[in-house]
Predict the 3D structure of the following.
Amino acid sequence: MSEALIETERRDRVCVLRISRPHVHNALNAQLLTQLGATIDELASDGVTRAVVITGAGSKAFSAGADLEALSVMDVLEAHAFLQAGQQALRRLEHSGIPVIAAVNGVALGGGFELALACDFALLSENASLGLPETRLGLIPGFGGTQRLLRAVGPAVARYLMLTGRRVDAWRAHQLGLSMLPPTVPDELLPTAVSLAEEISRNGPQACRFVLQAVREGRDVPVETGLALEAALAAMAVGGPESDEGIAAFLGRRTADFEREPTAKEPYIRREPK
């Protein structure tokens, strides 16, 4: 039986995933990446999970990046296969349809920073630091960092960080838009991330999937194409049961319950426009 390198903790509709290789600062190896991809696939299809939080075991590292000891003995073909596996795992995360929050507790370097960039957004502890230092080792990012950092902070900042290999601390990362809330003390990071995930989990799950799809697919296409996608997804949302519940709850002055069955006493009647 293989060692569990991704620990899961269920909190109602939220699932917390912990990268669990603390003895090597949660470095990413092939086995861990395989488990991460498989876990994300399972959560995406379980019909229960509405949001995911990813963090690192321990207090010092979210992830220090790819396992350099393993990488150092690979030939070109083996390295290519390993890097492709990493890219595929992060793509599965991006395309899961589940909102994913990175709770960055400590260092997130190389592949660890790339993992955080693949999440929908990140929250940082005050002791977090982020960077892509690969050029200092004669390498370049290989899990998608050149592409995701470019899109997150723009080409000039992306080039600066990758060419120098410098780290940014939590406050500078927040200024750059790499975290959605100001950095928090380490002990409050995970509760804050879980609370935010719980808030998201109470919204319509299909609506959340549609938002993620519209943003993901619309990012790299002409605005006209993105608007057409948005209109199609918005129309499907209007025609679905989630909007029935959401609008009925709004009109009835109650909180929407997207697991609630409609009742005859509280119908939402669709009226044809005049």
User: Anything to note?
Assistant: The first helix runs from residue 30 to 45. Residues 204-274 form a domain with the Lyase 2-enoyl-coa Hydratase; Chain  A, domain 2 fold (CATH 1.10.12). Strands lie at 6-11, 14-19, 51-56, 61-63, 100-104, 107-109, 121-124, 129-131, 167-169.
